[in-house]
Automatic annotation (TrEMBL):
Keyword Flavoprotein among record annotations: no
Residue span, Amidohydrolase-related domain: 4-271
Name of the protein: L-fuconolactonase
Organism of derivation: Chitinasiproducens palmae
Keyword Cell wall biogenesis/degradation appears in the UniProt entry: no
Coiled coil: none
Short name of any one Pfam family annotated for the protein: Amidohydro_2
Keywords of the record: Lyase
PANTHER family, per database record: 2-AMINO-3-CARBOXYLMUCONATE-6-SEMIALDEHYDE DECARBOXYLASE, CATALYTIC_ HYDROLASE
GO MF annotation, one: carboxy-lyase activity
Origin: domain of life: Bacteria
Length: 273
């Protein structure tokens, strides 16, 4: 089984923030940790603290396209997001800029969420839908807005990051929002990213407390719309355990379902052969 990590921050410049590790995860560091964990490929998500933006992740992906691809950040989102996206989309080789296979929006603070609530980003979803771009959303606490976007743009493929869990949440309260997440399941264009979920548990590996929640997500979305990932820079347990948590302890997953969740689904979604 080829394991593909759906979310890793890689950077060589800038100071990391919050609960992420302080030492940069450069390409060489990442390759070494992936080898130790048994991970074959990774989708790079440029972190906000990297002043080079998408550039470093794109360079890594272009140098090793069979191992890395990128879900990029759209700069100047509040200034003129539509013009920015059109310019980005027009770059040579777009699926995009050789290595860019989608984009990610962060709506994890009131300031970042305001443009979405106010309708200032509506044109972006139309452009992304027409361009067949995959859009990942970090949007804790505002999942009904995803419902609105998915309903208005049924051909726009959306990914809810971190299963919608708020930053820093742990224990049973981390999934107080679960009904709102499961309510998105009828939209066939909505996917969920199960990223570093062990960090939400108060109990040690193999995080048995999470099993009922993961089973409810599986029952709602099915095995074809779940993407496994690590968010390596914030893991508080070994990378390998992040892999084996799904591969060895969720016994109700059939082998072909596991192969999809652990990599096949994200490769198909991003058109990454």
């Amino acid at each position: 089984m080829r394991i593909v990590d759906a979310q890793v921050h890689a950077w060589s410049n800038g100071e990391s923030t919050g609960h992420h590790r302080r030492a940069p995860i450069t390409a060489e560091v990442l390759k070494s940790e992936m080898a130790d964990a048994g991970v074959a490929r990774a989708v790079l998500v440029p972190p906000l603290w990297d002043p080079d933006g998408n550039a470093y992740s794109l360079r890594v992906a272009q140098e090793d396209p069979n191992r890395f691809s990128v879900m990029g950040l759209l700069p100047r989102i509040i200034d003129d997001p539509v013009a920015c996206l059109r310019g980005w989309q027009s770059q040579p080789g777009m699926r995009g800029m050789r290595g860019m296979r989608g984009m990610r929006f962060l709506f994890n603070s009131p300031e970042r969420l305001a443009p979405l609530r106010e309708g200032r980003l509506d044109a972006i979803w139309t452009i992304a839908e027409q361009a067949e771009l995959v859009v990942a959303l970090l949007i804790p606490g505002a999942l009904p807005l995803v419902d609105e976007i998915a309903r208005r743009h049924p051909n726009l493929r959306l990914v809810v990051d971190h299963l919608g869990v708020p930053r820093g949440a742990t224990g049973p309260g981390a999934f107080d929002h679960l009904p709102a997440l499961l309510a998105l399941a009828p939209h066939r264009n909505v996917y969920v990213k199960a990223v570093g979920v062990g960090d939400y548990a108060l109990d040690p590996y193999p995080f048995r407390s999470l099993t009922p929640t993961l089973r409810r997500v599986y029952d709602a979305f099915g095995p074809d719309r779940i993407l496994w990932g690590s968010d390596l820079s914030r893991l508080h347990h070994p990378y390998r355990q992040c892999v084996t948590h799904f591969c060895e302890t969720l016994s109700w997953l059939a082998q072909h379902e596991l192969e999809g969740i652990m990599g096949g689904n994200v490769c198909r979604l991003l058109d990454w052969p």
